Amino acid sequence: MTTLTKIGNSQGIRIPKPLIQQAHLENVELELQVLENGLLIKPVNNTGREGWEKNIEEVISKHKGMQDDGVLEDLLNDSDLEDWQW
Predict the structure, then answer these.
(1) Distance in angstroms between the alpha carbons of the first and the last residue of the chain
(2) I want to staple 44 with a disulfide (CB 3.0 to 4.6 A). Which of 13, 29, 71, 78 is the partner?
(3) By CB neighbour count within 10 A (0-12 exposed, 13-18 middle, 19+ buried), where does 84 fall?
(4) pLDDT tens per residue, range 30-79
(5) Torsions phi, psi of 83, nearest 5?
(6) Domain-wise residue ranges, the chain
(7) Which fold has domain 5-43?
(8) pTM for the full model?
């Protein structure tokens, strides 16, 4: 259990470390959501794009100088439309 503590013009709470660890709230940005009977504190899920830049750089470096002929040719080749009647 904890109580509100005055912090400047605001108020805050102290959360015991075991609860922080159990709820995976360490060193993450937090989202606060007001519920009917209280306040929900949860970590912000920013992992969707985490590491994308590094992964893209690795893929580019592994395939440097290579050309993806199959996909590019398929997109640019309209020969299959020659038999089509408009």
Answers:
(1) 74
(2) 29
(3) exposed
(4) 999 999 999 999 888 766 677 788 888 888 888 777 766 666 666 776 77
(5) -85, -5
(6) 5-43
(7) Pemi-like Protein 1; Chain: D (2.10.260)
(8) 0.46
